[in-house]
Design goal:
alpha/beta, about 425 residues, globular, binds iron/sulfur cluster
Length: about 425
Amino acid sequence: MVIAHVSGHARRAGVRVGETLVSVNGKPVADILDVRYLTYEKNLTLELRAPDGDARLVALRHNEGSDVGLSFENDIPGGGQTCQNNCVFCFIDQNPPGCRESLYVKDDDARLSFLQGNYITLTNLTERETERICRLRISPLGVSVHATDPALRIRMMRNKKAGECLSLMRRFAEAGIFLNAQIVLCPGYNDADNLLSTLRELQTLGEALISTSVVPVGLTKYREGLATLRPVTREDARRAIEAAARFPNVWCSDELYLRAELAIPPAEFYRDFPQLENGVGMLALFRDEWENDANSKRANTVRPYKYSINDRPCTIATGFAAASMLTELLIPFPNVTVVPVRNHFFGDSVDVAGLLTGGDLLTGLQDKALGEALMIPSTMLRRGEDVFLDDMKVSELSDKLGVPVTPVEPNAEALSRALRIPHER
Ligand code: SF4
């Protein structure tokens, strides 16, 4: 693994950028997990190879378990494993044609689960990899379960190796690994009694199972040639919420509550929000933070509210899913208009803000009076970039709409900050 940055103990020991870390204490390193595991010990001998091939050993001493100060050009040399499944509900298969290559990548790598919180299916694990996960205690591990019944899981994932999920999870639990489970609810497949039996069987994992989420299948307009699936209805969503309520540590996504036309539960319901990244509890957390923030400010100020975009008119664009709650929270701010935007890129049934494109925003907003600023959730942009999913840049949208566009992190504090900052073009 080629070293990209050196700091702390590694720098003091004389490790250099550009060298390759070959082994630690005589044990070869294949990826970042090996590095983290092997550098846990107090006394280390690093085998390094310079770009010209010269090898050397460097001794290093640090506090047991502390960071030695090494980062690498690539944490997983050779790239992560890709998935071997052909799930009936795969969202990637439903992407419009002609998008960037990265939108079609199907990764399914336990290392990415540990490093980035991705959910994996366990269908491509060899015995050696399973044993390595147990030995290195890669924890917590996120598992896309969908169904515990082997035949049903095989049918949903169209992979004959998909039947082993629960036994593998049991093996990980016995090795001291904590697990988070995810279920994509597909009516006609894993709903109703099948959902109940999956949730029941998952309980057998005991305390190793931190959380289980149930999220509705996402269906775009690009399903030609794909398996027949119907969207989750109001009744399906209600039944799933009732089923989840019968078991501890099982939460349904915000989208399911909206589909069920039921109130979003209070923030306490989600405890420490173990599956926020799956859209579970995001709305409750936002509402809670917003209201607490507003209340504390109200108590300390003569002005009724803390915000001051100088009372100039401005617009927040979002998906239909979050629009009504946001509108309600912003009632005290008559200068702020919340506009839900329709998704033409993926189709009407996709209503989350994160999948809206620059083109959707342009179509949905071009005839509207937007005021002096337009705010959008930053989740609409590719991670770390100023670009929407359809490759439109934020600056391009701003030019076309004739208004400054500000991406805002999807949390109450960021929105409150954005509303206070004067927006200059
Ligand atoms: S595991 Fe299934 S849903 Fe995930 S990328 Fe692979 S085929 Fe698609």
